[in-house]
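Quick one, T. Sequence first:
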Amino acid sequence: MLAGALATFKLSTERDRAQLALSESDTRFRQIADSISGVFWLVELDPRRLLYASPNAEEVWDSPLADTYADFGKIYRNIHPEDREMIQQGSSDADKTGYLDVEYRIIKRDGSVRWIHSRGFPVNDTDGNLFRMSGFAEDITDRKTELERIAEAGRLLSVGELASGVAHEINNPLAAISLYSESLMSQGLPNPVINDLKVISDQGKRAATIVRNLLQFAKKSSPEIRRGRCQRIHRTWPGAEESRLSREQHLCFNQCSLGPS
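Structure tokens:
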């Protein structure tokens, strides 16, 4: 009898220790689950029902947790109409593999749209058969917004580079137009011709202003730096005004002169 009592006491003690360890483990898990911004979830696949979700699931899924436990399908009602077909297909595939990795939008009760990233992993029974799926869901709206902002900045950079290239290509012919129209106006031509040349010169300057705006948008080098370089190059070949090289440097100098001083 004494041996039986000792055995019973030993079993009871081991059971109490196991229960205490399980309780401590559960407490630690809940502390972790409650402290993160995402949602730990555990779903039984057949029949599909929610077994566990961390408390902040109500905020992420925008659905009362009690209602979600009662009917797991209710979380799908908040999914953006454009994403529902994708989610249905992803859920169907997850029922077979246990793996899920989807990003989708939900429409909250206040009308705001939030992005959710949900990942799931298979849970097998002792025979190796899939019967549950565990996972993690989180609101990634802020991350999405930041990525979109970076992408938009990249698009603006591309536009800026294009604008800079176009501006530089247009600048040279504009410089030639301005140079030669002003040169012709100083050669004593008839007044009607001078008036036409003034129109050409004025419109050339107007186009040059547009080009400067494009360059400023593209945030390229300042006109003062180009002007200093062109003046220095021009002075390197004094007395060579009639040479092809000199004409090119004159054009370069005139092009820089179109910029703001």
